[in-house]
Automatic annotation (TrEMBL), chain A:
Gene label: CENPN
DNA damage recorded as keyword: no
Primary site of residence: nucleus
Name this protein carries in UniProt: Centromere protein N
Coiled coil (UniProt feature): none
Alphabetical UniProt keywords: Centromere, Chromosome, Nucleus
Compartments, record wording: Chromosome, Centromere; Nucleus
Lineage: Eukaryota, Metazoa, Chordata, Craniata, Vertebrata
Organism this protein belongs to: Oncorhynchus kisutch
Pfam family, one: CENP-N
UniProtKB/TrEMBL annotation, chain B:
InterPro entries on file: CENP-O (IPR018464)
CDD domains registered for this protein in UniProt: DRWD-N_CENP-O
Source organism (scientific name): Oncorhynchus kisutch
Recorded family membership: Belongs to the CENP-O/MCM21 family.
Protein name listed in UniProt: Centromere protein O
Keywords: Centromere, Chromosome, Coiled coil, Nucleus
The keyword Nucleus appears for this protein: yes
Signal peptide span: none
Subcellular localization(s) per the UniProt record: Chromosome, Centromere; Nucleus
Lineage: superkingdom: Eukaryota
Coiled coil: 23-66
Metal-binding keyword on record: no
Amino acid sequence: MDDSTKRILQRLIRRIPSQMLQTMLGKWAHLSREDLHSLDFTQPKWVLTEQLLALCEENGLRVKHITELEMIYIIENPNQGMWHGFQLLDAEEDAPSIELTQFKKQFKANLTELISNVSIKIKKHTDEAIWIRVAWGDNFTKPNHLKPTYVVHHLQTPYVFVTGLTSKYKPLLNQALVLATRYGSMKDAHLSGRNLTAIRDLLMRQYQQVFPTKNPKPLQEKNPVPRNPNIEKEHAENTENRLQMACEAFGDGTLPQLQKAVYKLETKFRDNSNKTLTDREEPFRGVVEFASTNLLESLRHCVSSGMASTPVTPLLSSITQKGRNYFVITDKGV
Amino acid sequence: MLVGYNVLSNLKIYISRGVLGHLKMLEMEANNLELKQQELRQRGRQEELNANLQALLSKRDQLKAEIKANTSLQKMRTLLDQTGVPYERNEDVDNLEDGSDNSQLLLMMARHTQLKDLLHAHHLIGGYDVLQTRKGKGVCVSLATAYEGVYLETYNLEIDLGSNLRICRHNIPPFIPLERLVTQGNMQTDIRDFLDTLSQYLNAYAGRKQQLHLTKEIHSSVQVAESNALCTILVLMFTIPGEKAEAALCTLQYADHTQRLPTRVNIESEDTALVSSPQWKKNQALLLETPLHTALVTMKKTGSIA
């Protein structure tokens, strides 16, 4: 194994937490059972790394095997790094009937045509998601396996999720994806976060949405704050209305875990007490950022407890309804 | 001495008259007050009763008017039902209309109740249901899906009733081509057509998904090698009973997304002779014509698969 391969393996082992290492290696299935048994997972990581390096050399494993291990690890733990959502537009006639082998062939052919030195790995996960790992090189260098791009796509849906993509290679990836999926173009969905499952659930609407029904079941607050029963009785109808509106805007049950919502303002400053700023002609540029460990959960609680006024302002409900968390607000609207 | 006596007696009378008189005066005043209060109370009671009377009278008039309106509404409604063409004008209905605002309104109300009953009936048979939201500015359509008599998921669409109908939110999965159905089905002009087509797609998808689910549950010997989210491509692996226990790969393609049955069935195996036998040709035809899980039951019975 040459030095760069060794470095890749070292980096990867360092990245995988010790508790998961054994299961990952088991799934990888490139080391025999005796080899795996010979490894003592209670030892410190650097010792393990040396042993693994030796084992891989013995078995003649190469870069493509190591990248397989990395892919297995990332598929099992996708909620790291920054994921960005993209939407495919203008479907052609045969877009809904694309099947896996067709897509794989087309994508590989397209991308290798656009850029010669590139390493592509495509894997289909059990939940019908296609995972693509791309390591980029150019005419003179080999593919850089230390900075790969991962792409997740569900067939027959117009959504693509990408992490680790630099702006240099973005148009190439776009083109390859658009051609392989038989769509017209791809645009930024303005939705990003660390949690892939969250942004996927939000864009593909896989969380529990609430709609007005004829016989509304009374929605229950999960952790009711102990309050005065007389006051509660007076406010019962209002509380129910607020809860219904909060759930209609954001969803019921467990919500996708978004961490941030960013509103970029480009509106004119309007405050009568500050004449200097109000008189300026150019728009006042400001950025409002909401951050939380679980943003949608906190927003829903704000509405249901009365902290935010109802009906829910479309600025907040657009996060779930449009499936994005980056908005630019001008005087004409969002 | 007489003067003194007079003065004294006057004084006595004056004093006695003063106190007694005073008391008498007070008594008279009290009596007067009592009388006045009684009068006031009576008057108050009378006014109250009068007011009650007026309220009850007006309520009775109101109820009478309501009864009258309802009976004419019922008459109009039975007439509409009898004519059997609820959405178009016809002569009988025109005759009932005497051009006045009242009868126009009555006609509208009768049609409204007819539509509501029709929608309720539609909802009961498992079709879609429409609900008004946001004080009439929007509607929410609930599309129910069912397969083999079992209710499955319900999908919802919230439509904004502006000058142009616009879907503002929905929970339809992204692999159902909603935008294409909106433009092709002409949602603006013929919403029933659009909803019917959408319901067809959703029910077909729910049916295919349920078939796959039942297959996985009932037939554990059959392995699912490949499937996709829209359930339009399915690759199954059968084990053929025999000494060699060979495997057969069956590919089912559902090219028509509004149908629950496959359009193409391909069976491959290493044992090509077996696959081209008449028994397996029958199996291929069976898979094209019956739902997957029932077809597999038959195939197991005839011994084609383990």
